TrEMBL record:
Organism: Lupinus luteus (European yellow lupine)
Name of protein: Fe2OG dioxygenase domain-containing protein
This protein's record includes keyword Ribonucleoprotein: no
Superkingdom of this protein's organism: Eukaryota
Gene Ontology molecular function terms on file: dioxygenase activity; metal ion binding
Record's keyword terms, sorted: Iron, Metal-binding, Oxidoreductase
Family that this chain belongs to: Belongs to the iron/ascorbate-dependent oxidoreductase family.
């Protein structure tokens, strides 16, 4: 048995700020967002422009994929570009506390790049792995539409984040950042298994996300928890309630790094309660060639940069290598 980190019992509900993207009062939204980014790194976004009906269709199509027989899903196994199916237990996010991988299966969809295109030589760029249209008709079209609509939402949130950091609203729209982002949709299906932290069993182990921001849509089954202070003894975990029609947004490690730790990339995990759970995560990452270095508004003579500059491609490649099973284990 691996040594377990101490944590407080009976998680309390978390109260998160709610950002209404249809609100014309930008200053109000920026104030709410800045408070959330400093406090917890998590907030809700509502009235984001993606219809309830379309989100229901994305969830329905996701469920169709995960209900396929395992042998069919394994034909769609993720490739070296991290596109395609990830089996149960494939990902191990918290090796210090997990005895096995996450009790979830997933499916990666990225920005479509042709196999012979110049971008295809870079990590995280390449053609997607699509289910056959006779097996899952309209699946590809639905997911491509979601990718585009989620990007629009992510860029709108990024503009508020820029203003909250006293930057120009379009700071993150630069070509090397969100002009050609690494934007990844990940469909997730959690097993109907009860998690037991004392035994090292989790739906998803405790982790922080890697990039700029994550937009998370969930069904109505709870399970997401956050820990605002990862160094606390014991750790205090808070439940994040599902909110119909909203995205739960959290900041990634690169934004914490960019902001010189002004904004928080918060530890989070998923505990299963015996019910199946579906969620859709959209990871909005900087571009492959983006050099992440301390923002000019987040440093001073008395508060110098805490991190050395790093190209995002190098950072993301290492994080995936650290958390995913080697693909060779699936070869026969």
């Amino acid at each position: 048995m691996k040594k377990q980190s101490r944590e407080a019992k009976s998680p309390q509900p978390s109260v998160l700020n709610c950002i209404d993207l249809s609100n014309p009062d930008t200053n109000h939204n920026v104030t709410l967002l800045k408070q959330a980014c400093i406090d917890s790194g998590f907030f809700y976004v509502v009235n984001h422009g993606i219809s309830h009906g379309f989100m229901d269709e994305v969830f329905a199509q996701s469920k169709k994929l995960f209900t396929l027989p395992l042998h069919q899903k394994m034909k769609l196994l993720r490739n070296e570009k991290h596109r395609g199916y990830t089996p149960l237990l494939d990902e191990l996010l918290d090796p210090q506390n997990q005895v096995v991988g996450d009790y979830k299966e997933g499916y990666y969809i990225g920005v479509e790049v042709t196999e012979d295109g110049p971008e295809s030589q870079k990590p995280f760029y390449g053609p997607n792995v699509w289910p056959a249209s006779d097996v899952l008709p309209e699946w590809k079209e639905t997911m491509e539409k979601f990718q585009q609509e989620a990007l629009d939402v992510g860029k709108a949130v990024a503009r508020l984040i820029a203003l909250a950091l006293d930057l120009d609203a379009n700071f993150f729209d630069k070509p090397e950042i969100l002009g050609e982002p690494i934007a990844i949709t990940r469909l997730l299906h959690y097993e109907d298994k009860i998690s037991d932290p004392s035994q090292g069993v989790y739906g998803a182990g405790a982790h922080t996300d890697y990039g700029l921001i994550t937009l998370l849509a969930t069904d109505d089954v709870p399970g997401l928890q956050i820990c605002k202070d990862r160094n606390a003894k014991p750790q205090i975990w808070e439940d994040v309630a599902p909110l119909k029609g909203a995205f739960i947004v959290n900041l990634g490690d690169m934004l914490e790094r960019w902001s010189n730790c002004v904004f928080k990339s918060t530890l989070h995990r998923v505990l299963g309660n015996g019910q199946e759970r579906y969620s859709i995560a959209y990871f909005l990452e900087p571009g492959h060639d983006c050099l992440v270095e301390c923002l000019p508004t987040c440093k001073s003579d008395t508060n110098p940069p805490k991190f050395t500059p790093i190209y995002y491609r190098d950072y993301l490649s290492q994080r995936y290598k650290d958390t995913h099973a080697d693909l060779h284990i699936y070869k026969h």
